[in-house]
């Protein structure tokens, strides 16, 4: 029985950058009269994108026209290979197969497709990421600073009394401008070239809030900026102040990435009002909360990604942030 092995291995995930090349190799334990092929969608990212758009806009089934077979070169009686240039940024897959002479059925290595992830070429180096939780800057950066802030002088017992009386006690937050003040150190001294912001959308302050501050992942509006992360300024809206941060990062030749969790929203999110049909519900109508590792995240409401209208909404949302200068 002939044993055959593929490289990259079936099921393996490989990271490349635009401009790299990938070589697929198929090795046989015994020489056979056959032809070998790579079945892949490498090089056809535009076709895949077109099918996705047509599925959403015209409700057309995806027909996988991006997949094609490319014949591999016979290096020696035991080895076949092919090298492909990676010129598109996208996620691709591929798997080798061969046809013995006189047999129309392909023979495949066991396992899943090999996965090829191609990232932009500018991220091949100088990729250090600084994860910034804006709330933790300014007066919250260190305990000494926090204690000097007038609004933090409320005692724990007083907070507990207010909690029990049903008041929402939320400590003051750091702001975008506080983070701007730290950029020289983060970018110039620490040499971080990507500022990754935890979610900056508004989150529940009363209804459905969990924890003292509420989770930043309980977004109420995917395109809005949380005013709690800003100074009150009659000349600069919360969005203006976010754009100040984007400009400050770009002036230092760095990039801004946003963490946007599109799997779910917080309770009473804008989507609950405009498109309640996008929510995942239990059989009795209860709105479903997602979770992981045996824990249910009760402050979140899961979105149903089988609704293609949601895809259009999310695409427009991502474009909105790109137009605001966000890099990733």
The secondary-structure element order is EEEEHEEEEEEHHHHEHEEHEEEH
Straight-line distance between termini: 49 Å
Structural category is: alpha+beta
Mean pLDDT: 91
How much strand? 15-25%
pLDDT below 50 for ≥5 consecutive residues: which ranges? Answer: none
With strands numbered from the N-terminus, the spatial order across the biggest sheet is 2-9-8-4-5
Topology:
Blueprint: E1 4-7, E2 13-17, E3 21-28, E4 34-40, H1 45-58, E5 68-71, E6 73-76, E7 79-85, E8 90-100, E9 114-119, E10 129-132, H2 143-148, H3 156-164, H4 176-180, H5 183-189, E11 194-197, H6 238-251, E12 255-258, E13 264-266, H7 270-274, E14 291-292, E15 295-296, E16 300-302, H8 308-323
Parallel strand pairs: 2-9, 10-11, 11-12
Antiparallel strand pairs: 1-3, 3-7, 4-5, 4-8, 6-7, 8-9, 13-16, 14-15
Which key terms come to mind for this protein?
about 325 residues; alpha+beta; four-stranded antiparallel β-sheet; 8 helices; about 25% strand
Description:
This protein is of the alpha+beta class and 328 residues long. The protein is 23% helix and 24% strand. It has eight helices and 16 strands. It has helices at residues 45-58, 143-148, 156-164, 176-180, 183-189, 238-251, 270-274, 308-323; strands at 4-7, 13-17, 21-28, 34-40, 68-71, 73-76, 79-85, 90-100, 114-119, 129-132, 194-197, 255-258, 264-266, 291-292, 295-296, 300-302. A five-stranded mixed β-sheet has the order 2-9-8-4-5, with no helix packed on it. Strands 1-3-7-6 form a four-stranded antiparallel β-sheet, with no helix packed on it. Strands 10-11-12 form a three-stranded parallel β-sheet, with helices on one face. Helix 6 links the parallel strand 11 and strand 12. The radius of gyration is 26 Å and the shape is elongated. The chain starts with a strand and ends in a 5-residue tail after the last helix. 23% of the residues are buried.
């Amino acid at each position: 029985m002939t044993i055959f092995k593929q490289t990259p291995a079936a099921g393996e995930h490989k990271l490349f950058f635009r401009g790299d090349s990938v070589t697929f190799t198929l090795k046989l334990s015994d020489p056979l009269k056959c032809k070998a092929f790579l079945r892949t969608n490498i090089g056809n990212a535009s076709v895949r994108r077109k099918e996705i758009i047509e599925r959403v806009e015209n409700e057309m089934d995806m027909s996988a026209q991006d997949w094609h077979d490319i014949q591999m070169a016979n290096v020696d009686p035991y080895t076949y290979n092919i090298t492909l240039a990676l010129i598109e940024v996208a996620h691709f897959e591929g798997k080798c197969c061969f046809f013995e002479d006189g047999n129309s059925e392909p023979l495949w290595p066991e396992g899943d497709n090999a996965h090829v992830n191609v990232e932009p070429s500018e991220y091949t180096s100088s990729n250090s990421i600084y994860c910034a939780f804006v709330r933790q800057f300014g007066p919250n950066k260190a305990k000494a600073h926090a204690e000097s802030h007038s609004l933090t002088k409320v005692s724990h017992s007083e907070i507990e009394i207010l909690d029990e009386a049903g008041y929402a006690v939320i400590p003051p937050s750091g702001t975008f401008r506080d983070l701007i003040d730290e950029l020289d150190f983060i970018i110039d001294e620490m040499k971080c070239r990507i500022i990754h912001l935890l979610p900056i959308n508004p989150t529940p302050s009363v209804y459905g809030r969990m924890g003292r501050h509420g989770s930043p992942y309980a977004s109420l509006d995917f395109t809005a900026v949380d005013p709690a992360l800003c100074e009150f300024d009659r000349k600069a809206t919360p969005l203006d102040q976010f754009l100040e941060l984007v400009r400050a990062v770009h002036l230092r030749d760095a990039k801004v990435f946003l963490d946007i969790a599109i799997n779910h929203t917080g309770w009473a999110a804008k989507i609950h009002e405009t498109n309640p049909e996008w929510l995942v519900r239990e059989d009795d109508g209860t709105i479903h909360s997602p979770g992981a590792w045996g824990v249910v995240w009760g402050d979140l409401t899961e979105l149903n990604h089988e609704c293609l209208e949601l895809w259009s909404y999310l695409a427009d949302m991502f474009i909105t942030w790109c137009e605001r200068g966000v890099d990733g």
